[in-house]
Amino acid sequence: MPSGFLALVLHMHLPYVRHPENEHFLEERWFYEAVTETYLPLLQVFERLVNDKVPFRLTISLSPPLISMFTDPLLQQRYDNYLEKLIELADKEVGRTYNSPFHKTALMYQHRFRQAKYLFNDVYQRQVMLGFKKYRDLGYLEVITCPATHGYLPLMMVQPETVRAQIATAVDIHRQYLGTLPPGIWLSECGYAPGIDDLLKEFKLRFFFTDTHGVLFASRRPRFGVFAPIYCPSGVAAFGRDVESSKQVWSAREGYPGDCDYREFYRDIGFDLDYDYIKPYIHPDGIRINTGIKYYRITGTTNHKEPYVFEWADHKAAMHAGNFMFNRQLQATHLSKLMERPPLIVAPYDAELFGHWWFEGPLWLEYLIRKIHFDQDTLELITPSDYLTRFPCNQVARPCASSWGNKGYHETWLNQANGWMYRHLHFAGAQMVELANRHPEASGLQRRALNQAGRELVLAQSSDWAFMMSTGTTVNYALSRTKSHLRNVLKLTAQIKENHIDEGWLSSLEGKNNIFPRLDYSWYQSHYRPDFS
Amino acid sequence: MTAFLPWFFGFLIIFLFAGAFLLLKKRQANFTLRPLRPSPQKMPLAKLDSPLFKEEYAGDLTIPSEVMPQPQEPEEELPGKYNIDRLVLMARDPHWLYAYWEISATTQEEFKTNYGPFAWGQSQPVLRIYDVTGTDFEKQSTFEYTDILISDQADDWYIQVGQPDRSFCIEVGRKFQNGHFITLLRSNVVSTPRASLSEQADEEWMWIENLYQTIKYQYGISSPLIVEEIAGRAGIVPLGISSPGFYVSQT
Description:
The complex is a heterodimer of chains A (about 525) and B (about 250). With about 525 residues, chain A is α/β, with parallel strands linked by helices. In chain A, helix 3 (about 75-95) runs antiparallel to helix 4 (about 105-125), helix 15 runs antiparallel to helix 16 and helix 16 (about 445-460) runs antiparallel to helix 18. Chain A is built from 19 helices and eleven strands. Chain A has two domains: about 5-145 and about 180-405, 7-stranded beta/alpha barrel; about 415-525, Families 57/38 glycoside transferase, middle domain (immunoglobulin/albumin-binding domain-like, Up-down Bundle). Chain A is globular and about 70 Å long. With about 250 residues, chain B is α+β, with helices and mostly antiparallel strands. Chain B has helices at about 5-30, 50-55, 105-115, 120, 225-235, and strands at about 55, 85-90, 95-100, 125-130, 145-150, 155-160, 165-175, 180-185, 190, 205-210, 210-215. In chain B, the strands form three sheets. In chain B, strands 4, 5, 7, 8 and 9 form a five-stranded antiparallel beta sheet that branches. In chain B, strands 2-3-6 form a three-stranded antiparallel beta sheet, with no helix packed on it. In chain B, a hairpin with a 3-residue loop joins strand 10 and strand 11.
């Protein structure tokens, strides 16, 4: 047996952004950029590892909005158009930078974008989702879910029905596209409050993750700290995040991604190049945006930036992977002396950090996995399910309400910038529950309206909006999305009550906000309990 | 007529010059309209001298703010009131609660009916905070409480209780000058999260296979070492390092 276990968890999520009415919606690019820079590169990492017969176990949470976007034909088509345009720009760049220190990097982008197009269209037939399913089926990944629209559950617990509906929706779409019940769940932002685990248990979800203090500050002192999971009284396991491993990767200052040889995120040709030249590749209204082509390395802390050299960055990624492994080995060896069983180090990350923000992130991950396999036997990669199979007996304690947001509790999602939302969200939630209870057997137009009200409600509940308001990024968009979905719930529920449903308007909503076509309003009924028999 | 022609040509030339001048002016204006970000690679595309690429100095590295290009339609605002009675309490962190409320017109009218038409104006709105830890609020009659004077316009409040791992319930009411307090709304009960290691060191263990089975037993020796070790770390838990999403570095 190894001295310790390492559970790497990648949480993949983006808010549901789909605007059929406008092909050039800036916020839609979040998804396209993440596909090119994060999701496809991760799949390539898995492919190379499998080809080289390197065994590994990773946990990936696929958020329901992300699954919905992966499988949406409109977004698939638009992504293809986006790539087409990007390849055109990369081709031009190869010519423009000829004989300059940027040329090699330009060639790299050209190659990457062409490869993305090939993977997207030819290998995965536009179904990026299937890539993750494939490696899950092959036994390399443990794929878990997260609440339907990444709702921040602790602040929804005043209406457990709406929390249950978030989970029911998530479990349903996971089953639809991955063919099985999700074994566990990533609670949005690690947001936990007592009682949530009881709802998870209804859906046979066996585990979730909390931030360090979620487990550490549990109702009873955890014997092994965060280095073993605890069971909630409901029997659902809570895995606590390890601080050290997070800090090494996350911290903007001390973390690996800030290394001088890594690619500089903020020097994008969408902002740097001559307006007339770049115009066809930025927003049609002339708004400069990130194209994804960046030629500089971080260099240092000043504005002086030097050209990116891939080989140097590659070398650093390997070094950092070695350093990360070394530190985890030390940690495991040290902890194993204090525990009667091998310690478990849980290292969860937002997947979009890898590739999009930290360009070399996927490469680092690949080096790490290879090194763990070839260079040592202190550490072993593990997933939560594997761990619980090996160590089914764990300490019982109720985790502490917590999140991995700023200050560790709920403040990021409840403060002066976004606190106003909750009176509306809770009112809309109450309306939804009341109507679902009142109409046990709705059919026809009434059923459609109830289902759509449920969709609008979950969309309004995305934690992403509250987060954007809190951090001051794309606030207008977050405000407009929250308000419009809330208005739609209020209007739909009013129409249902008055028995006067505007079918044309309902149809337009069903087309526009088409997430979760299988969402069933009955999931909001107070007595609803899932039946998986 | 012959004398007119030179004049004509003269004017024509002046016009042409003026036109050309204006055109240039306009172009310059276009130039100034360009985004102010430095564009270090502004040289003609064909003539790239490699040394120029080796060192580059950017004037600024401001974070690109993503602007909304969509025309902002005047959006219908959400209702300010739903005309219901409710007082909802949430625990934000170990030290703070958040409450929002709405007092319906009916309840206000009832108050006036019961206490007189001027009672509303003669009383002050108050938030009363009860510590109900370990008790049943409905059954017990006396509780320690703290009053917060609020304004008539307030419909939400951040309440600093400063007490982790306690349970609270609050009421919104009116307080008369003689100290008499009339409850209008009562909230749900919430508990603040812990902010430290639990004092409870006894252990309960559970063994899970297919059925949820509980086996309780005590470990004789606890390992204070590891608890200390982690507590030491907890002191430096950099909770903010994991700001979610893409924006981690932009905030």
